[in-house]
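Can anyone check this?
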Amino acid sequence: MKTQEQLAQARREECRAEVRRYLVERVPLAFEPEAIRRSLNMATALNFTGAEIDAALALLESLEQVRPIVVALGASSSFQATAKGVLAHERGQ
């Protein structure tokens, strides 16, 4: 039987994979975190929170698999998959 921490880690990994898949399938478009969350929650029964999406994007950005696109006149960021992220997704890494 899995512990609570193991279940939480599995959910974090699933969220990261889903966020990356979502962006990779929509290259070269960029999406705001809330748009990613809404779309994933409509398409799956996983019901990710905004905090989970933000954490997934932060990790994927640190791995250079997504990049933020900052709006010139604002502080909001959208995210886009990078070539490295596409390759990692295709390889199932």
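Reply from J.R.: I decoded it. The helical segments are 4-24, 33-43, 50-62, 83-91.
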